[in-house]
Amino acid sequence: MEELIKVSGTDEAALRASTGAKAASFLSMTVVLGVILWTGGSEIFMPPTRPILMGQEAAADKAAKNNRSFWDGSLARSFETNFRLRGHVRRKFGPYWSMAMLKLGDVTSSELILGKDEWLFLRGRVRLQPEMTAEGRVVFPNIMGALSRTLAAHGTTLVNLPLLRKGVACEERLPDGLDPDVGLDREIIDSLKARGVLTVDIFDKWRSMEPHDVYKIQDTHWARPARIEVIKELARTVPEIPQQEVGAWHTYGEDKFNAGLLNFLGIAIQHPVAAQARAVPEKGIKLFPLSFAAELEAGTYPSRILHVGTSFSAGFQFRDLLAALLRVGVDDASEFGQPILSSLQAALEDRFDHLPEFMLAEFPLYQAAKMTRLTPFANEFGGVVFGRLNERLEFSAVPEELIEPPTSNTSSDGLIAWSYRKGSLVSSGDGVLLLELEFNGPEPSEWALSMGGARWPISVPAGSQRRVLPLVDGPVVGDFVTLLPKGILPSSQPVNVRVVADVDLGAARSMSGALGAAATWESSETLSVERFDALTVRWSEKTAAPLDVIAIGVDAKGAPAEQRWTTPESPGSRFGVFTLGAFIGGEVTSVRVGGVAGEVQVSVASKPK
Amino acid sequence: MLFTDNVFLYYFLPLVVALYYAIPRAGKAWVLALSSYFFYGWWRPDFVLLMWFSTLVDFSAGRGIERQRSQGRRGKGWVVLSLCVNLGLLAYFKYANFGIDTLNRILESQGGEPFEWAKVILPVGISFYTFQTLSYTVDVYRGDAKPVDKFRDFACYVALFPQLVAGPIVRYSSIADQLRHRVHSWTTFSTGLLVFQAGLVKKVLLADTFARSADLGFALADPTTLEAWIAALSYTFQIYFDFSGYSDMAIGLGLLFGFRFPINFDRPYISKSITEFWRRWHITLSSFLRDYLYIPLGGNRKGSVRTYINLALTMLLGGLWHGAAWTFIVWGAYQGFWLIAERLSGRRSFYASLPGALQNAVTFVIVVFGWVLFRADSMSQALAHMGAMLGGGGMGTGKLFIEWSPAQTLAFAVAPIVIWGFATTQEHARRLRTWWILAVLVLFLVALLQLHRASNIPFLYFQF
Question: To the nearest whole percent, how much of chain B has pLDDT over 90?
């Protein structure tokens, strides 16, 4: 027989508790029961107020509520989580414990990394999943490249303001030995530039500044000196941006504390213990003249610049600072808690008929790094924005004989799909190559254009409809492209598919060269490169080798530059087009093309004026 | 529901205690049974049906055996039925995925088509309650226990929430009398509360702190020797404080309702041999395996060779009971190997000639290596980790210490004192001391605050 527990003061134990122990035991029981009853009772009789959720938090909360089920326990778990997060104890007493732990060098949330001098970092933004960033480092620059090209056709200059991750900008405040993958941020910025996107590059500047001048110590957002540096760099990178149009100035208002990361420790900024946080106060901005500020706020000022940003802008008066420092009117469409592509979509949908001259897009780089071809908001953005912006634009058709035609499959359930296999549509994958689709169905239909870097949804009303959507690749150059209907369509649904480019193929400048050893075509002709120029390659005979294109030259500052595109396998088509973003303002001095045979034609094509 | 959940601590427990003491004696078993079903069904209501099924089968088996006895028969058929039902449930819910996965790997290696298979979800606690219901039928069959009179008592025994999901494994014969008659007193109640508090402190302040370095250390692709040792030691301490903490909480909760459960841990890490370790670690499981597996297999009654085979089989199945994975099977074999080796040297370790402290140290190291097998995700990871511990990981501090906190250092300083220097919770319960009561109270309040953090770590033994 197993030994059962014996209790002091009972017959089995045969050991008597002392009077002191009895008193202590009674005290302990009273306190514990009191704490339990008070805690449970206070949640019922004095229920805490519900927090007001906004943006992504509100959407996530709604989605979680919709997905709760009694049978799989998710309803019970949501109740537990809600109770724990909103409870009085967590709010009133928990913060003292969390702050004490923080001061002792520990954090009570696994979502945070405690750096040196009580610096706090969000773990998910310091240590991004490598398998995810493999796509993100390519997909996001390709989407922005496509947007930049499309907006340019409408006369709008898109300027990207990518913000380094806190762990990268303030690397010295991370615990020693923690690698934030600095190269990721550098690579995304370079990728944006390589796709011809005007990009404000504050990488070196921010990393040379004092960390507390770049990011707030216990918040996820930026400090004012960092914002000022971005605006200065914007003026340097885009000298043509409107400036000095208004006699604007600013003064400083009330102190604001930002220590949002304390929320992860259960410490609300209003809690008395938050005074012990390392939240450096920052004064708000008051923009003058007041009439100018009021017009900006009301959106009635005729601004030539539209700024679209994230909470970095919306929560930190970045538009006001832009207006004050550039002395110009700036329209603002920044949003809290939204990814930049969603905010850009919302801003553009409001302005399709009156696009601004300049459009600034501020976004933290972790957003870019996390993007995949299946990110819903990115695909929604592409389907809506490109579908609408390209509606009335004309593009240059790629000769049909150069492209391997798509296969059309009809499955047993009537599903029709048009598929271009890998290597059929070879480009830099940033929207320089597009698919023009002409639908003429008797009924409305829904489609998806699926490819290596995106899955654009297409909504088509009945009748003759045209859609031109950019081809966006992931890490693979010249990946698959498939057009799929959503649901079953009558097999008579006609769709014409045409491959087009957004550069003028007819007016391209040819490069002279010749096939050399190892089936490599080489040219040493020098050609100047402007923004959005692209290298086009066509050849007459297919080979079994992968296509390998290398362009060498110099950038606007005369610094050596190189771009390379390699398909994983032999391309089925005999045409490729590649954006020469690294050489803007400079020139291409040499091009080598491997994996081609027969007559080879290489040229530099520009966007139609 | 977890004992560390706010819903349990602040609503379920006080309500059930209040109801239990407010209701007349005849209804108390129903209060416990029904509240236990609620407790168990909180996360997966459909799994309660399984428990009812197991309960009904074994209640009927007990009655059936009694009926057949009155007719001069032994009632073997009822035992076979109970074995088939309980072990069948266990086999399906716990081992079907493992079996199909293994079969598919073999098929694929032979170029065959794998079976399409929807993964089976493991009902929490099934390993524990099926053993308990089985033990009842076997005890009745053997004549070690009388069949239960009232269904409510049996339902209460099977479902009893304090020990339902992770033990201790309470045999029917241990608490048969208590099911019929329990003594309720302030002394028992207040001591139960203290034991519960002590368990929660172990779990939240120690086990969860060690979990950080254990999880990180075992996730490292190439740990250094130091990292490998720290990770293994962290897990060694984590599993002890986690499981013994849970057992304390279960025992304490039992006392709140007048039940005296069996002791499950008796300072296992002070053992001087693996044989002794298994007398101190998860005592209710090892004694269950001894009485319901090792002895029925023949124990040591059929010669030395059969004894070793029985020992090896018992430990292999004991390993498999913990989980459907090769790592658990190898862990069981590893334990069996040491037990056989010690039996060969007369139930003493072959290092028994060493001074006592060294015997303890060697045993502890053997146990630590065993926990590497237990914790690793695969055999290859386990072997790589052991290789790193044996010097193959190279020197250096590596990544494990990048986010090392003072709390982790403190845990490493406190754990050996608690393990080797302190009396166990049950010893304290037997002889209450003022300083212990007050220390537990303060640490319990700290643990409650810690529980309000953003992320909680579930009990390790919930997965078994």
Answer: 57
Q: Which residues of chain B make contact with A33, given a CB cutoff of 8 A?
A: 14, 193
> pLDDT tens, A180-202?
999 999 999 999 999 999 999 99
One domain, residues A205 and A288: yes
A112 domain-assigned: no
Task: Using CA coordinates, name the residue in chain B closest to A31.
Answer: B441
Asked whether the beta carbons of B437 and B198 are under 8 A apart, the reply is no
Q: In angstroms, rounded to a whole number, what is the distance separating the alpha carbons of residues A451 and A474?
A: 8
Distance CA A142, CA A579 (A): 11
Name the B residues in 276-335 with CB < 8 Å from any A CB: 283-284, 287
Measure the CA angle with vertex A151, ends A150 and A155; round to 5°.
125
- Please report which confidence band the pLDDT of residue B65 belongs to, taking 50, 70 and 90 as the band edges: very high
* Cβ neighbours of A155 (radius 10 Å): 9
Query: What is the tens place of the pLDDT at every residue in A155-182?
Result: 999 999 999 999 999 999 999 989 999 9
The predicted pLDDT at position A453 comes to 94
Domain ranges of chain B: 6-182, 188-272+352-455
- Closest C-alpha to B439, from B456, B422, B459: B422
Range of the domain at A86: 67-94
Gap between the Cα atoms of A378 and A393, Å rounded? 22
A33 and A84 inside one domain: no
Would you list the DSSP string of A312-357? HHHTTTHHHHHHHHHTS-EEE---TT--HHHHHHHHHHHHTTS--S
In 3D space, the residue among B88, B166, B105, B167 whose CA is nearest the CA of residue B378 turns out to be B105
Q: State whether A229 and A247 are in the same domain.
A: yes
Are A515 and A563 within 8 A, CB to CB? Answer: no
A/B interface, count of CB pairs below 8 Å: 198
CB B175 within 8 A of CB B245: no
Angstrom distance (rounded) from CA A114 to CA B403: 7
In chain B, whose CA is at the least distance from the CA of A109? B454
Contact A532, A609 (CB under 8 A): no
B462 — contact with chain A (CB < 8 Å)? no
B322 is catalytic: yes
CA distances (Å), origin B410, targets A75, A470, A478, B400, B414:
37, 58, 56, 16, 6
Largest CA distance in chain B: 74
Sign of the CA dihedral with B370 first, then B373, B374, and B376 last: positive
Residue whose tokens read 């790629």: A398
* Whether A84 and B6 lie within 8 Å, measured CB to CB: yes
| Contact list, B400 vs chain A (CB under 8 Å) | none
Predicted confidence (pLDDT) per residue in B286-306, tens digit? 999 999 899 988 888 888 888
Q: Are residues A373 and A249 in the same domain?
A: yes
- Measured between alpha carbons, how far is A117 from A211 in angstroms, rounded to an integer? 11
Q: Is residue A494 domain-shared with residue A510, that is, in the same domain? A: no
Whether chain A has a CB inside 8 Å of the CB on B21: the answer is: no
A463-472: strand order across its sheet = A396-397, A495-501, A430-441, A463-472
| Cβ pair B45:A265 closer than 8 A | no
- Helix spans in A370-417 (H): 376-389
B21 phi and psi angles, rounded to 5 deg: -80, -15
The average pLDDT across A547-575 equals: 93
Mean per-residue pLDDT, A399-414: 79
The answer, yes or no, to whether ipTM is higher than 0.90 is no
